[in-house]
Amino acid sequence: MARLAQTAGLTDVQEEILSTVRAFVDKEIIPHAQALEHADTYPADIVEGMKEMGLFGLTIPEEFGGLGESLLTYALVVEQIARGWMSVSGVINTHFIVAHMIKQHGTDEQKRDYLPRMATGEVRGSFSMSEPELGSDVAAIRTRAVRDGDDFVISGQKMWLTNGGTSNLTAVLVKTDEGAEKAHRNLTAFLVDKPEGYGEVAPGLTIPGKIDKMGYKGVDTTEMVFDGFRVPAGRVLGGQTGRGFQHMMDGVEVGRVNVAARACGIALRSFELAIEYAQQRRTFGKPIADHQAIAFKLAEMATKVEAAHLMMVNAARLKDSGARNDVEAGMAKLIASEYCAEVTQEAFRIHGGYGYSKEYEIERLMREAPFLLIGEGTSEIQKTIISRGLLRDYRSRG
What is the b/e burial string over 386-397, where b = at least 16 CB atoms within 10 angstroms of the residue's CB? Predict the structure, then answer.
């Protein structure tokens, strides 16, 4: 058993889940990730395996057919899956965010309708806030929903939609006319049912083809274009307009823990590859791991892996306790994503010229790690969140 990224105080059930997932990753994901990633092929067989394991219902309450596990369990599962291939963790990330939002904020009818089908993977969720000209300024959303009888009519364009083509339920944040002075109070989250696929999937709703990316391949990333798309009023999350920003930010806190977990997984895999290679590759009559320059790199990499893991676990446990965790989730996401990029690059350097070859796994990880510096808010956004929280908690009395 490796000593890095271990978590104290887990229940027997949590240990069993993680052991099962780790074995699945080693047997079903790592051996196939390279070929699937290089071909940009959706991991359909792996997804079916996750369905059979019940992972799509991991955090959904037992009363709705799920396993009823905590955010911590989810984060540790994501860490292991990302260790195998980050794109697979992307398949379940947005699904978990949407399930969490429905569980926490949905009406009773919405919970009964969606959660049992989400637990089995029959319904798979995606999550949409960003727009082509939006960036991190969520309050500037332009996509608009206008009331028309028993429906809302949505028009506008969303961007960077993970699982845009393979999901059949999307939580979408749009502007509604609430008359509020503060822009974020004029935002509403809708639960949009849609068919899988690309093109005009429903009247007034188009999912263009996949965006070609440097990394994070296999999982589909798309735009979402609304042009007079009608949504029943009963699909307003929670049944009341104007609360979408709060609902989405709750989901984003879960997402930030997820991104931290993904970064931990990639960093851990990069370290595993580096320390194995460093003991096999020989120069000047001995393994390069015996050279102090490489040994010190391994020591620093392992320390960063461990630090990121501990901060991720802390953020997840705070969220599970019901406490506010915006600062801790931001810290975890910040340090895990930055350390992931650093650890992956050091692993790449340890591999030398072979790290540049597509035959070696580290080449793929080098293309995947940068995404985590951006997803769920850049490092600069995390620093903004952290500093605001600190100033709130340490307000000067002078």
Answer: beebeeeeeeee
In this structure, the strands spanning 199-202 and 151-162 are unpaired
Catalytic residue among 16, 342, 376, 380, which? 376
State both tokens at 317: 């446990």
Cβ-contact 127, 162 below 8 angstroms:
yes
Tell me if residue 167 falls in helix, strand or coil: coil
**Which of 122, 124, 101, 102 is CA-nearest to residue 111?**
102
So what's the pLDDT on residue 398?
Answer: 57
C-alpha–C-alpha distance, residues 309 and 257, integer Å: 11
Largest pairwise CA distance in the chain? 80
Q: List, for residues 151-169, the tens digit of each pLDDT value.
A: 999 999 999 999 999 999 9
Pair of tokens at residue 13: 């059930």
Report in angstroms the alpha-carbon separations of 353 from 103, 357, 362.
Answer: 49, 7, 11
Query: How many CB atoms within 10 Å of residue 161?
Result: 24
Helical pair 44-53 and 12-24, crossing angle rounded to 10 deg: 160
pTM reported for the whole predicted model? 0.93
CA distance 366 to 370: 7
Residue 391 vs residues 327, 340, 385, 395, 396: alpha-carbon distances, Å: 11, 28, 10, 5, 8
359 is catalytic: no
